[in-house]
């Protein structure tokens, strides 16, 4: 197996003997080795290139050069695409007018990513997991487009036109080329991310990331008490590395025992009762998720080891290192709604989609967000089937939550029953939706849905038609009208109270 993948691995062959010994593809061995090397470099970076000892310039240079080295080791000359994509986008930022710079940059960056994905899949036919150089490009695409929108917000809009989140992220000056490359290609996130905001990254480089500005979600009192200290990430890094080890062990032991492809096997479909097919599908998806847990948690640990990711303090005074975390495993596995699952899975990508699409799209933002997510993920047809299904699932889940859930909030026992039912429904719905994402091709994906008679598609359509839900903007407008009405009532009450007091004084006089 390892020998067969050597030819398609575009990176270094230095670890070929290890690849043959453990019988894993060389590109996967290179990736894990580079991430472990990045973890060691992160500890060194934090201890010996601390902001108190080193200038931001040196930290930028070292982080960028290490990032390029890891990219070359994993992907060979294909890593030049990272520079080309970044260079084209930076040129657009510099030479295009500020008014439309963010739109042009978005089109150029996403277009170059899609072009590379098309050539990788349909021209050179590298397959899914061999030297996928477009994986890092996906993260770089998020960073570049986020940066373009944040520059546009900071240089062309007044504060009153921005949401609180946009004010926090807005950038008031154009980054230098070194700062830009360091943000996109630093060694901590070049291979697996996660995406972070430019302001947070610059605060990390300059050593100001422990100030209250970067602790929005923490309690202000605790921040005031602990803000002068610089907490150690050691405990969180060790905890996340343990999570990585457990996730990797579970994935390697179960992924071959419970392949998703078995769910479309003719003998399995014809001989297995439908309820057992549902259980098998859930277990197969459960066995697949630890792979993502391993990759994203390891990437988070690398950033934390370098001192990046501090997000304030908990109420008990313990530091939080989840500023750029990409997932919350327990919230995923025990999610009781489609939205709760998506909010805790690939968190930084969800935030990127929200900031560049959902909050800025004026026509059906939900559908536009799912479409952008499909385009960003790649050109496999299965991605589009998954995200089109996700649109219907999201609308149906929203309708159920708004119309059915209030009836179960009358008591704790009713709510517990509701949570159990919605947990089971959410896990089945997620598994059903994600099957094309795993199978990739149209034929196998439609074969699976036909074996289920498209039942969840039809059920969701019926729910959406039977239980209409107001649009997001309609809900926001209704809330604003309600607040204005409450404000007017309060003013009227205060006015009446004042009149009564005046009348009483007149009578007393």
Automatic annotation (TrEMBL):
InterPro entries named in the record: LPLAT_7/PORCN-like (IPR049941), MBOAT_fam (IPR004299)
Subcellular location(s): the record lists: Endoplasmic reticulum membrane
Q: Which Pfam families match?
A: MBOAT
Report the superkingdom from the record: Eukaryota
Which keywords accompany this UniProt record? Acyltransferase, Endoplasmic reticulum, Membrane, Transferase, Transmembrane, Transmembrane helix
Q: What membrane topology is given? A: Multi-pass membrane protein
What is a single molecular function from GO for this protein?
acyltransferase activity
Start-end of Basic and acidic residues biased regions: 477-497
Query: Could you list the residue ranges that cross the membrane?
Result: 29-49, 61-81, 101-123, 382-400, 420-442, 448-469
Which Gene Ontology BP terms does the record give?
lipid modification
Q: Which GO terms describe its cellular component?
A: endoplasmic reticulum membrane
- Region (Disordered) residue spans: 477-509
Recorded protein name is Membrane bound O-acyltransferase domain containing 2
- Its source organism is Seriola dumerili
